[in-house]
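Internal ticket - ligand job 292, NAP:
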Amino acid sequence: MEDDTVHQLKRRATLLGMRRLFPVTDETVARPGGATAGAGPAVPPGDREWTPEELAAAYAYPETGTGGREPWLRANMVSTLDGAAQHDGRSQPISNAADMRIFGTLRGLADVVVVGAQTVRQEGYRPAREREAFAALRKAAGQGPAPAIAVVSASLELDFSEPLFSSPLVPTLVLTGAAAAPDRVAAAERAGARVVIAGDGMGVDPVRAVRALADLGMSRLLTEGGPRLLGQLVASGVLDELCLTVSPMLTAGDAQRIAGGPSVAVPRRFTLVSLLEEEGFLFGRYCRDQPR
Ligand SMILES: NC(=O)c1ccc[n+]([C@@H]2O[C@H](COP(=O)([O-])OP(=O)(O)OC[C@H]3O[C@@H](n4cnc5c(N)ncnc54)[C@H](OP(=O)(O)O)[C@@H]3O)[C@@H](O)[C@H]2O)c1
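stdout (C-alpha cells):
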C-alpha cells in the first residue's frame, strides 16, 4: 500500500504548475497568489503555467562579447532518468507539454537551429513556425519571424522536396564540407536551401560552422542534436550551454545518450544556472565553466 506522505507529495507535484527550484533566494520564493518575497524582479508563481514571456526571460541569451555579439551556442536535449535520448527512435515519447513549451521558447529566442541530418530524417523536421508570442521580442532583437534551420550533413542525402527546404519561412541552411557531392549541393540549392561550406573534407568542422553562422549574422545559436552531432560540438569545445530536460521515465534498452561519439580526454565541467520543475520533469540550464 502506498505511504500517505508519498501519495500527498505526488498529488501536490501534479497539481503545481512550473516552479523554479534553483537558484533559490528570498527573492525567488514564490508565495501563493503570485506575490514574491522581498524586492527584486517578479518571479512567476509556482501554481500555474508560465507565460511565453516569463519563459523567454528565464532563457534569455546572455549578452556576450563587447560591441558586437559573439556567438553563443546552446543545446536543448531531453533525457530519461536512465540516460535515453529517444524511445522508438524519437524524442517525443520521453517529452511532455512543458518540455515542448520550453522547446518552442528556445526556438523563439534563437537566430538559427542547428540540427544533425539523421534527426531531420528520423523526426521529419519541418520549418520553424512564426509564433505570435515571440513576434515583438524577435522584432526588438532585430530577428526575422522565425529561426532558420541549419541541417548538418556530409552525404546531403536529404529529401529536398520536403517543406523544410521547399517552403520555409526563412531559407533553410545546409552545412557541409568542401568535398560534398556537387550534384547534391546543386539539388539543395535548386530547392532554395543556402549551402554553407564549413569543412575541408566531407564533414563539417564544428568550430568553422559556428564561425560561419556568426559571419552570416547569426550569433544566438541553438542546437537540437542529435547525439552524434552534439558529441562533436562537445568534443570541439564550442558548446556554451546545455538546456537539459530530465524526464521522470525509465526506458532501459540500448537508446543513445544525449551525446555520442568518442569520449573527451577530460570531462567538460558545466555550472548549473537554473532549474525549473513541472510535473516531475526537471529543466536545467548549465553553462560552460571555461571560456572558449
Ligand atoms: N533526446 C533529444 O533531445 C534528442 C534530440 C535530437 C535527436 N534525438 C534522437 O536522436 C536520434 C538521431 O540522432 P543521431 O545522433 O543518430 O544523428 P544526428 O546527430 O541527428 O545526425 C547525424 C548525421 O548528421 C550529419 N553529421 C553529423 N556530424 C557531421 C559532421 N561533422 N559533418 C557533416 N555531417 C555531420 C551526418 O549526416 P549525413 O548522414 O547526411 O552525412 C550524420 O549521419 C533520433 O532517434 C532522434 O529522435 C534526440
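Auto-summary: The radius of gyration is 20 Å. The chain has nine helices and ten strands.
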